[in-house]
């Protein structure tokens, strides 16, 4: 899917409406809400999941001498890694931006590349050399998300939105593959800042004190280093798109009501 299509889908979700209600000091999802209530639910969460480095198209190149021709092919391979996170969240009854969270995350990005060099002498194949590149990076990441929540009913809701992630590459283990003529291998910078899109489906427990929310997330813009509309990471001779699949376990914190005002005469505003 093209990046402008992703942005259009996000905007369509954001222009829709929302309503919700807070009762019994727990989250109440539905079509009605108290007019004076601004905070529906807040608490902390932790999440576990997988990462996948989605490969882009293969790269090819040729190099000719007097009687010899070299053909190069770099074919990226997507690999699964892992991720874990912890943070705080808050949901309100606002009309547009009614969800936000921030937290700390560990990411494990794994990527690979099959590199083939084929040699022709006088148009006759004289040999093929195959090389494999491997990469295993561990990142420490901070994220902040803003989103729109749509309540399907009391027990289920949808969230999508945009966020920022700042990643630092802590541990890098890389084995190079072959190199295209005149092109050096490329890897992500040690520090990266991106805007990402996320989508989640929340399932509220019967006690309405916990939520389980599967989520998917992928970057859409690179801010540091700035690469215009490119939102992928370079590895070896090709590029990869990080996709994060996470299951969040969200624990609602009970809203505390104000203590009663001391009134020895027992006179209230209704008397």
What attributes does this structure have?
271 residues; mainly beta; Porin; two-stranded antiparallel ribbon
Low-confidence stretches: 1-37, 257-262
Mean pLDDT: 83
Q: State the distance separating the first and last CA atoms.
A: 65 Å
The CATH first-level class comes to: Mainly Beta
Note the overall shape. elongated
By CATH, the topology is: Porin
N to C succession of SSEs = HEEEEEEEEEEEEE
Polypeptide structure, described:
With 271 residues, the chain is mostly beta strands. The protein has a single domain (3-56, 81-111, 135-253), classed as Porin, CATH 2.40.160.20. The chain has one helix spanning 3-14; strands at 21-23, 26-28, 39-55, 59-64, 68-78, 83-92, 99-121, 124-153, 156-175, 191-204, 210-224, 233-235, 238-253. Strands 3-6-7-8-9-10-11-13 form an eight-stranded antiparallel barrel. It has a two-stranded antiparallel sheet with strand order 1-2. The radius of gyration is 25 Å and the shape is elongated.
